Amino acid sequence: MNCIVAVDKNWAIGKDNKLLVSIPNDMKFFRETTKGKVVIMGRKTLESFPGQKPLPNRVNIVITRDMDYKKEGTVIVHSIEEAMEKVEEYKSDDVFVIGGASIYRDMLQFCHTAYVTKIDAAYDADTYFPNLDELSNWKLEKESEEQTYFDVEYVFATYTNDKVSLYE
Questions:
Q1: Where are the domains of the chain?
Q2: Which fold has domain 2-161?
Q3: Which residues have C-beta within 8 Å of that of residue 141, sequence separation ≥ 6?
Q4: What confidence tier does 163 reach under pLDDT thresholds 50, 70, 90?
Q5: Residue 165 pLDDT more than 80?
Q6: pTM higher than 0.90, yes or no?
Q7: Which residue, 66, 134, 149, 163, shows the most beta carbons closer than 10 Å to its own?
């Protein structure tokens, strides 16, 4: 399983259920990386999408505690355990955790690869991703050349987890 995220220099990912910044190349990378795959997200992440619609050309698994929640085009589950059961039928490399913060936090232990767009700026934020540079089981494998979008500098980084939890 993988996760994919864009973070600022403080590992912030959002504010008021919105991304901190929209970088076209990052959006393109996200689309191309997850297209035709399975994405796992929380309800608030789904509701932050345009029209609160699931992402096209993907299996959208939404984790929510609301037992009555329904959304066309999604697979609704009510726990991490249920989400893990749903993804058993897919290849692990085809599954991407895409947020929000609590879903990342709860599922990071099951991810073997993290695709992180690291933005060289600090934003006003209320939501954070765990700092992989401070976690001993996560290693930076590769980093792209620095790229620029207007005055925003960023890199695409790939981290790997050498101690993936096996879900029982």
A1: 2-161
A2: Dihydrofolate Reductase, subunit A (3.40.430)
A3: 158, 159, 160
A4: confident
A5: no
A6: yes
A7: 149
